[in-house]
Amino acid sequence: MHRRFVVLVFNCLLTFGSYFCFDIPSVLQEQFQGNLTCPNGTHHNSTGHNSTLDCVEGLGMTPAQYNLLYAIYAWTNAVVVILAGFLIDKLGNRFGVFVFSLLTVLGSSMFALGSHFKGSPYLLPLMLTGRLLFGSGNGSLTIVQNRITAFWFKGKELALAFGLTLSFSRLGSVLNFFFTQQFEAKFGMQWTLWGGTLLCVLGFVSALIVSILDKVGMKQLGLDGVIQQESKKVRIQDIRRLALRYWLLVLTIMFFYNGVFPFVADASKFIQDKYSGYSQQAAAYIAGAVYDSSLVLSAAVGILIDYVGLRGIFAVGCAALTLPVFALLAFTFVPPLVSTIWLGITYSFAAASMWPSIPLVVPQATLGTAMGLATSVQMIGVGLSNLIVGHILGTKSSELKIPLWRWQQMMIFMLANTIACIVASISLNIVDKKQGGTLNRTRKGAAAAQEDRAPADTAPLLDDEMANEGSGS
């Protein structure tokens, strides 16, 4: 069965480019919000410490418009992934992987095209439309990716495989934080954005290869027909059958990510505003450390959680241990690197314990729909958080430094989300315990349970299986 690892390799490459593209604005926030023109003699990419005098040339967006680039991404994502999850369950992985990777290519091209209209009224609409298309592709692509992983690795190295695909997406984010700024300084904003588009094309090529491997693999396993039978039965009403702990899991995920993504989007600016002596480059590195540590840890944490189980307990632990991160950022001057690495660590544990729990609480045939809904709720939350953060930080682009009290309010908002996450994850554990404790099974317990329900798992959409779903699944 080494084929599943070949599938995994190309499956990993699927989202590498799109994750790189996603956070390009975060690294170039100064350029996106920079002035359209600079008076002679002051044009200077602000690396000096006297950055109050420097003028950064850029696209002239306000902080609110800049945060809108992230909010619109999150919201299209939210709307599209529900439909996408359902469509993938209906029409299969190959359809999904093709359409959605094509969308990321189209979206990133349009975003790059928008930058050529600097200073014209077309700039914002074009870039927002680009983010819209890009968002509808990228979130959905992650679902197909997870679904392919869940299919090839279920009951085997599931969290490890999830961890590796996540690591690879994160590698895209990390390389962006390391190289984009230097690339922009050398070649300018427009070429940088087109470079991102090129990486999305790489993902599209991987998509085609994954489709072929998936088709051949299914045929050899003789599963092509079975899955199609199951898919025909998927109905939108299946949402009503998703259990309470699925919804609590979804809330836990949403509140956790509400603290991570909006923070990373504004982190490099925050570091430059609050702590003295960080250049734009250094600030981008430190902001990227959230992803660096999760990149290094994801696979190892995945193996650990596959081995130990106790996913519910880990979820509570991650949330609780994230509290000090935002407290440090809000109320102390502890070097920001401490906080970003710490957040990266809790983030890896969260990702490895929360997402792979979804296949444990929903039937296989509705997995796409369930993943879609979960991603959707997560994105609605993150989109709202981006807007709220944009609002807290103010709407004037002229302020070179955003005042510290505004940053402090933003961190308190992040703290509030983390507290909500703790509440949701504790409730999740209570409900799960009442329903047989699937999430907190250790390796031995899980193996025994696997044997009990092996036959049921092949036809999880039969109604009688659903009737006793509360006790069993």
Describe the structure.
This protein has 473 residues and is mainly alpha-helical. The relative contact order is 0.14. The C terminus is likely disordered.
Keywords:
473 residues; globular; mainly alpha; disordered C terminus; single chain
Structural class, by secondary structure, is mainly alpha
Helix count from the secondary structure assignment? 21
Residue-averaged pLDDT, rounded? 81
What is the tally of beta strands?
0
Low-confidence stretches: 42-53, 451-473
Name the helicity range: over 70%
Strands, helices and their partners?
Elements: H1 3-13, H2 16-22, H3 24-27, H4 29-32, H5 63-91, H6 93-114, H7 123-153, H8 158-187, H9 189-221, H10 224-232, H11 244-274, H12 280-308, H13 311-331, H14 336-354, H15 358-361, H16 367-393, H17 404-434, H18 443-452, H19 454-458, H20 463-467, H21 469-472
Offer a concise description of the structure:
This protein is an all-alpha fold and 473 residues long. The chain contains 21 helices and no strands. The protein has helices at 3-13, 16-22, 24-27, 29-32, 63-91, 93-114, 123-153, 158-187, 189-221, 224-232, 244-274, 280-308, 311-331, 336-354, 358-361, 367-393, 404-434, 443-452, 454-458, 463-467, 469-472.
